[in-house]
Specification:
alpha/beta; Rossmann fold; 4-stranded parallel β-sheet; 12 helices; about 15% strand
């Protein structure tokens, strides 16, 4: 066909046709199908984990090929012992030994530690991308060159300074921290801040308690205290509460303001703070996977260590403890805030403009229809008049011929 085209003098057109004809093949070659396994430390329905899932899906949606995304939930908040770990390894090994993924995403510390230990035998040599790993020590990666990802760093110091700004008479801040691996990491980081705030604040911890004991301790705090709700989903006796129940229980027991470090606690009693979000963690780690799929080696994708937080607050909790919106950091998000007069007026104005636009549109259509009808009637009237004149002229002519 190309020789025929050249003979007809249109070689450029033929060249374009040949290029277009090869595009589907080129696209398929550039974007092979991929399989990604996401190993979650916790369970489906846990808001932090669900937000990470949403971020991962959003971050991978623009991949030009097909991605088979498989989620495995370790459910470690409900149970995590040696027998459980052994059974989990056997299950994953049986499931994936003949269908290895192109990438593994790890969600939170338990999944990260598991992959560093026994999980590496389940997914040998597979690129690993982690998120939600609290305060990652770079030395933890020295034996894992195929690992990269996001270190989840809640900004405790920034929140302490925020509380002192909003509540300048505060003398004690009590941290609610559960006795889990993530809780121990947060507690250790808190101890590092003790010296920095010495003389300004007393930093205490509520941990290794039952939920009943925790409520009692919080209720007894003096009036110049503030509570920071970090994580407390499983108590000393092994009882488990979801994120909303836990935050609500702490806030209801407290006579003093309660702040938080993660956005999943907002809306259930805490005032807010500089918050870490699961969605951002998932979206960021998905971007690293996309870099890998574009040809970048895992070793060339740097780990992100810096904390990324957003100032978010709850309107009802702010009112309860006298926090004015003008005191908040620039760019703060306030949930549950009723619309002000300006916003209400803007809404009414917008509705009025819409109604008026519809009315004007209908009026213009109606006017156009009337004008068209008038033109039609005028035209018909003119045609009738012309016809009548023609008949009259004919009659006059006929009469003359008879004479």
């Amino acid at each position: 066909m190309s020789k025929l085209c050249v003979r007809q003098g249109i070689p450029v057109l033929c060249l374009l046709m040949l290029i277009v004809g090869t595009l589907p093949v080129m696209s398929v070659a550039a974007a092979p199908d991929r399989r990604v396994v996401v190993l979650h430390s916790y369970h489906q329905g846990f808001k932090w984990t669900d937000d990470i899932v949403s971020g991962i899906k959003e971050g991978l949606k623009d991949y030009p090929g097909k991605i088979e995304l498989i989620h495995e939930y370790m459910d470690s908040k409900r149970r995590w012992d040696n027998n459980y770990k052994m059974l989990l390894e056997g299950l994953l090994n049986y499931k994936y030994h003949k269908m290895q993924p192109d990438a593994v995403i790890l969600s939170d510390n338990v999944a990260f530690e598991y992959m560093c230990d026994t999980g590496k035998h389940v997914f040998p040599g597979v690129p690993v991308f982690f998120c939600g790993v609290n305060y990652l020590d770079p030395h933890d990666l020295k034996d894992h060159p195929n690992f990269t990802g996001i270190s989840e760093a809640v900004d405790i110091e920034k929140n302490l300074n925020l509380i002192l700004q909003l509540h300048p008479h505060t003398r004690e801040i009590a941290f609610v921290v559960e006795s889990t691996e993530t809780g121990h990491i947060i507690a250790a980081h808190l101890e590092q801040l003790q010296e920095k705030f010495s003389g300004r604040l007393k930093l205490s911890q509520f941990t290794d308690l039952t939920f009943a004991e925790l409520e009692k301790e919080i209720a007894a705090l003096p009036h110049d205290s503030v509570v920071i709700m970090s994580i407390f989903f499983r108590d000393r006796e092994g009882s488990f509460l979801e994120f909303d129940e836990s935050a609500r229980k702490v806030a209801n027991a407290s006579r003093v303001p309660v702040y938080c470090l993660w956005d999943f606690s907002l809306g259930y009693g805490p005032v807010g703070g500089y918050l870490t979000t699961g969605y951002e963690q998932g979206f960021a780690v998905a971007g690293m996977v996309m870099q890998s799929f574009s040809g970048m080696l895992t070793a060339g994708i740097p780990v992100r260590y810096e904390p990324v937080t957003s100032p978010k607050f709850d309107w009802q909790a702010m009112k309860k403890f006298g926090v004015n919106a003008s005191q908040l950091p620039p760019g703060s998000t306030i949930i549950g805030r009723p619309p002000g007069l300006n916003e209400q007026f803007q809404g009414l104005l917008f509705a009025g403009v819409v109604v008026l636009s519809i009315f004007l549109g209908v009026s213009l259509l109606y006017t156009h229809h009337i004008q068209a009808r008038v033109r039609e009637l005028t035209q018909k009237s003119g045609e009738a008049k012309n016809a009548a004149e023609t008949v009259a002229d004919g009659e006059q002519t006929g009469g003359a011929e008879k004479l």
